[in-house]
Amino acid sequence: MRKANIEDYGEFAFAVLKVAAGEPVSFEVFADDFKEMERQAREIASWGKNVFVKIPVTNTLGNPSYDLIWRLSGAGVKVNVTALMTAQQARIAVDSLRGGGIVSVFAGRIADTGRDPMRTMRSVRAKIGPKNGTQLLWASTREVFNVLQAEESGCDIITLAPELIGKLDHFGRNLNEYSLDTVRQFHRDAQGLRL
After folding, report:
1. What is the pTM for the complete model shown?
2. Three state DSSP letters for the chain
3. Would strands 157-158 and 79-84 be described as parallel, antiparallel, or unpaired?
4. Residue 45 has pLDDT above 90, yes or no
5. Which whole number is the average pLDDT over 11-36?
6. Domain spanning 9-168, CATH class
7. What is the pLDDT confidence band of residue 195, given thresholds at 50, 70 and 90?
8. Alpha-carbon distance 110 to 112, whole Å?
9. Gyration radius (Cα) of the chain, Å
């Protein structure tokens, strides 16, 4: 939203909800104080039956949000616990979601640290189990191959930026043809250069 210069969160959210036409949408609280987070969460949840409220795993001081997640989910708020990066964080989040919700594990950021996120994702999937109403989300996607990894690890949801969605057309593409297309692209890009 910052990149898009959004200043009115509510106006933006209602525009998104109109486009979403009843499909699930997650909106995040932006307060750092748990009392204000709870107030914002309840207001955001009132925007529609399809709305999940994103609650970060901690505030900026590192204080865990699990008690807030427990209260909100117990009150019927659909919670999406976000910014999870360890299996331990995710396991506690799963236990805090009464009646289910979403756990968003930032697999791309885990990979940015040189760690394979698959181990964490599989561990969280095993904790969730098949039918407790909680969904596993592969967040912070970095490349199209993550779609296959998310599927292999049992994720229910994956977030994809528009530039990655556009690359899905390359799945299964003949690599020899792709190589030739790449060479042709390089050639076109070099037109007009002198040595």
Report:
1. 0.91
2. CCCCCCCCHHHHHHHHHHHHCCCCEEEECCCCCHHHHHHHHHHHHCCCCCEEEEEECECCCCCECHHHHHHHHHCCCCEEEEEECCHHHHHHHHHHCCCCEEEEECHHHHHHCCCCHHHHHHHHHHHHCCCCCEEEEECCCCCCHHHHHHHHCCCCEECCCHHHHHHHHHCCCCHHHHHHHHHHHHHHHHCCCCC
3. unpaired
4. yes
5. 96
6. alpha beta
7. confident
8. 5
9. 20
Return the closest-CA partner of residue 81 out of 104, 107, 98, 52: 104
Rounded CA separation 16/74 (Å): 26
Per the prediction, the chain carries an average pLDDT of 95
- Closest by CA to 139, choosing from 115, 108, 93, is 108
CB 139 within 8 A of CB 105: yes
pLDDT, one tens digit per residue, over 73-132 is 999 999 999 999 999 999 999 999 998 999 999 999 999 999 999 999 999 999 998 767
Angle at 102 (CA atoms; ends 96, 103), nearest 5 degrees? 70
Judge whether 45 and 78 are in contact, CB under 8 Å: yes
Residues with catalytic function: 54
- CA–CA separation, 131 vs 123, rounded Å? 16
